[in-house]
Q: What sequence folds into this?
């Protein structure tokens, strides 16, 4: 197995020295594996690549990131080898499906950070935007698309009093229309902003300083500016969405309902946004076990020995 020409090709393609060394190390491992099986490069098939991945990870941990890197290195080597062989060799990595790359879990704000932002922002437009991000869980693109007539007020009968809630409709991901809810405090902030802002022909709910529909970059910059003024880390608007989901989960809203409010197509996506509460999970587990098996109310102290 001759990898020198391939590594020279990477140098010519302006790959960094660090990347080339990493490729060289991985291909060295692959060459050792082929020697153990007494295989030539042109004899390798998809099943051998799968065996190599298990050989590289004998403990069965199979970290997705490491697997993707190994497949990328070997796949690149075979792409080059196939090109040099005028197509007489097939790339065995093509038949292997790489593990899906998981999106990083957005970090929710703490209650102290939420309070600092909520109480520190003085601009009525920015207060209303923050309210929709924190208490309605809107995506940034959804918020920017809102018009003056996107939200209507509904009155819910609750005993002798009436509860006021805002109900909005927006086009979410996949061009699917979905419903979102707005709390009374945020409704008041939106009403105050509309009453204070300059007259505009535009139907957009939120306007930039140039009296145009606000865009995601403007909101990101606005949030960054307020965080700097208030001595907070620079938060991304997407973290507000995670904060919305995590706070609902903490007060007992079912995951299925949180998923609907976020406009997710699957619960798997929702779980990325929710930070599980370990203490609450343990308490609920104990309560469930107590209900299912009431004879096991007292712990067996011998288990602690």
A:
């Amino acid at each position: 197995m001759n990898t020198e020409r391939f590594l020279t090709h990477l140098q010519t393609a302006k790959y960094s020295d660090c990347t080339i060394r990493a490729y060289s190390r991985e291909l060295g491992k692959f060459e050792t594996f082929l020697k153990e099986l007494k295989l030539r490069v042109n004899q390798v098939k998809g099943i051998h690549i799968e065996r190599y991945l298990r050989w590289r990870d004998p403990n069965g941990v199979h970290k997705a990131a490491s697997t993707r890197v190994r497949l990328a290195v070997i796949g690149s080597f075979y792409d080059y080898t196939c090109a040099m062989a005028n197509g007489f060799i097939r790339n065995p990595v093509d038949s292997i499906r790489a593990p899906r790359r998981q999106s990083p879990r957005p970090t929710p704000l703490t209650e102290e950070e939420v309070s600092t932002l909520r109480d520190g922002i003085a601009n009525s437009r920015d207060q209303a935007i923050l309210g929709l991000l924190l208490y309605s869980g809107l995506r940034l693109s959804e918020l920017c698309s809102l018009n003056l007539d996107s939200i209507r007020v509904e009155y819910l009968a609750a005993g002798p009093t009436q509860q006021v809630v805002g109900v909005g409709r927006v086009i979410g991901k996949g061009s699917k229309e979905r419903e979102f809810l707005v709390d009374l405090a945020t409704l008041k902030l939106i009403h105050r902003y509309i009453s204070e802002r300059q007259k505009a022909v535009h139907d957009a709910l939120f306007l930039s300083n140039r009296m145009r529909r606000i865009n995601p970059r403007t909101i990101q910059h606005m949030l960054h500016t307020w965080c700097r003024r208030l001595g907070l880390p620079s938060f991304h608007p997407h973290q507000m969405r995670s904060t919305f989901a995590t706070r609902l989960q903490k007060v007992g809203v079912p995951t299925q309902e949180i998923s609907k409010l976020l406009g997710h197509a699957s619960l798997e996506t929702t779980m990325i946004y929710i930070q599980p509460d370990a203490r609450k999970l343990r308490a609920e587990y104990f309560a469930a076990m107590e209900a299912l098996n009431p004879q096991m109310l007292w712990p067996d102290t011998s288990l602690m020995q």
Summary: Residues 111-151+186-277 form a domain with the hpI Integrase; Chain A fold (CATH 1.10.443.10). Residues 17-37 form the longest helix (21 residues). Residues 173 and 293 are 44 Å apart (CA to CA).
